[in-house]
Design brief:
The complex is a heterodimer of chains A (249) and B (397). Chain A is built from 9 helices and 10 strands. Chain A is of the alpha/beta class. The longest helix of chain B is centred in the middle third of the chain and has 31 residues. By secondary structure, chain B is mainly alpha-helical. Chain B has 15 helices and 4 strands. Classes of the chains: A alpha/beta (249), B mainly alpha (397). At the A-B interface, strand 6 and helix 3 of A face helix 1 and helix 9 of B.
Chain lengths: 249, 397
Amino acid sequence: MAEAFLVAKDLHKSFNHIKAVDGVSFTIDKGEIFGLLGPNGAGKTTTIRMLSTVLEPDSGDVTIGGYSVRRDADAVRSIIGVCPQELALYEELSAIDNLVFFGRMAGLSGREAREQAMSHLKLLGLVERAKGRVDKFSGGMKRRVNLAISLMGHPQLLFLDEPTVGIDPQSRNNIYETIEGLRDKGMTILYTTHYMEEADRLCKRVAIVDGGQIITMDTPRNLRSQIGPPEQVTLEDVFLHLTGRSLRD
Amino acid sequence: MIRVDIVRPLLIALLQVRIYLRDKAELAFSLLLPIAIFALSYGAFGELQFRGTAYVVNEDQGGAYSTEFVDRLDEVDGVKVDLLSMVKADSKLDRADLLMVLYIPEGFSDKLAAGEPAQLVFKQRGNGGDEGQIVASIVRGVASEMAQEFQVRSQVGEALAGSDIEQSVIDITVEELLDRERGNPTVTVEEDIVGGDTDPVYEFLPGIVTMFVLFAITLTARVLVEERKKGTLERLLTTRLSVGQIFLGKFLVNLSRGFIQTLILLGLAYAVFQMFTPLSFIESLVLAVIFIAAVSSLGLIIGSIARTEDQATWIAVFVTMVMVMLGGTFFEIPESGVLHILSKVSVNTYANDAFKTIIAEGGSLADVGLQMGVLAGVAVVGLYLGRSLFRIMPGGR
C-alpha cells in the first residue's frame, strides 16, 4: 500500500459564518498527482491555502510529510512549494532574479539558488530569457516563471492552483510535460484546474468539490464509468453531472 | 537564546530597493522631491536680507544736494532707487501700483546751500506697506546722516570764519574727517545672538523635515498592500520566512529610503543655509533615522489593516494630517489646554521639539533624550502592533 504523504482530516473553514470548506478529508500518496476539481467558489483555493499554512483551519488538521500544519507549520513550509492561481511574482525584475529571490526565501544559499534557478528555467524553456524583465514576457512565459518559482528549494509536495489558465497550447504542453517529469522523479502534486482533460491526463485520482465538500473522489476512469462507458464519457460529463449546469459566478 | 535571521529581511529590503531603482519615474520623483521642497523653502526663506525699492520723484533737477541724496540712497545695501516723473508717480499711487513715493521738492538744494531748512515729502497709500515703511526708515536715516554732515560743515565754516585758512582747505579737511567717520564710525552696533539663530528658516526647517518624513507613512502602508495585491505576500507566507522577517524587511527598506531623502534635504540645508555644524548635522541625521523608524512602524500598522491601496493611502493621509496639525508644524500649540494634551499623541510633536532643539537652539542629542526615547518606543511598539494586527486580520497569519 502506498505511503500517504498528505493527510487532510475533516477540514472546516468559514468566513463571516459562510462555510467555505465543510468537512474535507482526503489523502495524497507520495509521488501521486491528485486533482482537486470544482466549480468557482467550491472551496478549492481555500483548501489549498489551509494546506499550505496560509490560512489556519477552524477545525480539523492536515499532516504533510508527518508534520502538522497547525503545530509544525515551519516544518511544513520547508517541504512544500506553491504555485498560486494568480501570477505572484515581481514583474519589474528578471525571471532569474525572481527565482533566486524566492529560492533564498526558501532557505537556499545564493549559489544554490542561482544553480536551481537556471535548472528550472531550462526545464520550462525559459533559459534564454532568464535575464529578461518579466513584465515584457507573454502570458504563457509568465505562467512558466510562476511555476518555476514554486520549484525552488526542491519541494516534496507541490500545490498547483490552475497553473495553465489563459495560456497558449505550446506553453500548456510544456507545463504538462514538466509536471509529468516532476511526478516521475517522485514529487507529490496537488493540482486544481477547470480543464477536465488536463485532470484526466495528469491526475491519478481526482476529488470533485462543491459547496465546500468533496462529493466524489476516485480515479478519472472510475469516475467516468459511473455515468457510462469510460471510453465514451469525458470527465467534464461527470463534473457537470455531479455539480449541475447552473452558472457559479 | 532567540536567534534572529537578519539575512532574509535584508534580502527583502534589497529586492525592494532594486525594484525602486528600476522604476525610473519613482526614483526621479522621490529624489527630486526633497530638492523641490528645499527649493521652495529657499524661495520662502533664502533671501533673508531686506531688498526694497525707493521710488523717488526728484523735482530738484540738477541740484547738488538732491543728487547726492539719491546717490547715497542708492548705495545702501538692499535698496534700489527708481526715479519717476511726478505724473507717473501720482498715477501709480492712484492705481495702488505703488504704496509710497518720496518727493524731493524743487529748490531743495538751493535752500540747503542758503542754510535754510529743506523738506523731503513721503506720499503713501495707507501705512505705505511693510516694504514702504522699511524704505522710509532707510530714507530718514540717509537724510539724517546728510543733515548731520551738513551741520558739521556749516559749524566748522562758522567757527573758522575770519581765520587765515583757505575755504578749500577747510572743505577738504572736513570731507576727509567725514569720510573717516563713515568708514570707521565712532558708535557701532553689533549683533549678539543668544540661544540660536532666529532666522525663519531655523524655525521652519524642523517642521518641513518632519512633515516630509511623514510621507513615509503612506509609502510604507502601501508597500504591504501592494505585495498583498500582487500575490507575492501570500507566496512569501508559504516560504520559510516568518511574518516578523517580512515586516523587518519592509521596515528596513522604508528606513533606508527615508534616510536617503532626508539626507538630501538636510544636506542641501547644510550647504546652502550653512545652518549646521558638522556635529549638529550628524545629530540631526541620527534623530531623523529614529523618527523615520517611528513613522515606518506606523505605516506598517496601516498596511496591516488596510485591504486596498486606496484604503492604505487615505488612512495614511488622515494620520499624517492629524500628526502634522497636532505636531505644531503649521501653528504654535499653546502651552496648556486640550490642544496641548492632544499634541502629545503626535510623533511630530516630539520630532519637531527635538529638531528645533538641535537646529534652532544649538542643543545636542543629550538634550533630546526624552523625545528620542518616545520616538524609538513608537518604532518598537508600532512594529509589534503591526505584526499583531496582521495576525488577526483576514488573510494574515
